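Open question from group meeting: does this chain pack into something compact, or does most of it stay loose? Before anyone orders reagents, we agreed to write out a predicted structure and look at it together. Recording both the input and the output here so the notebook holds the full record.
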Amino acid sequence: MIGIVNYGAGNIFSLTAALERLNLSYGMVNTEAELEKYSHIIIPGVGHAGTAMEKLKATGLVNAIKKLSKPVLGICVGMQLITTHSEEGDAALLDIVPVNTKKFDKSLNIKIPHMGWNAVNHQNNSLFTAVENNAQFYFVHSYFIEYNPTFDIASADYGLKFSAAVQKDNFYGVQFHPEKSGKAGEQILKNFSNLSL
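Structure tokens returned:
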């Protein structure tokens, strides 16, 4: 059973629609007590990382999330929230994965935001079981997670190499939107639901 952290900064509809297609049961997490009800937790997120962090703080869930020992998946801005710091709003984040979220640099001659399909090169990680290497995933973001081989489980290139997915212990993050990434994205959600620690 997947609990979705409901803090007002997530694109909940497309995520719940994908979970329903996969017959994965889910519910919303609004309180610390509700975190206990679920075996797996997803932190969704779209928009501004600094604002999203303020909304998350307002729920009172920050310390409880940091202490979780069950599988947790941050999606898009939800992934950025588990890093240490974002250049977006110069925001201190959850600091679970000790890497930073940085702004794409226009001098790389790239369009910002990075929007659309991109190949993802993944490591041998359970989150990517049965996903072909260099499978295409759907991205929409202006900020990226710096590549760090210690925590990187999948990378992509857009002017520079960045982390498309990270892991530290029971915490996972994906920069792309699995719920909008067709079969490969659905496989990620299925794999997450099957993770046991």
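Observations to bring back to the group:
The first strand starts at residue 2 and ends at 5.
Residues 182-194 form the longest helix (13 residues).
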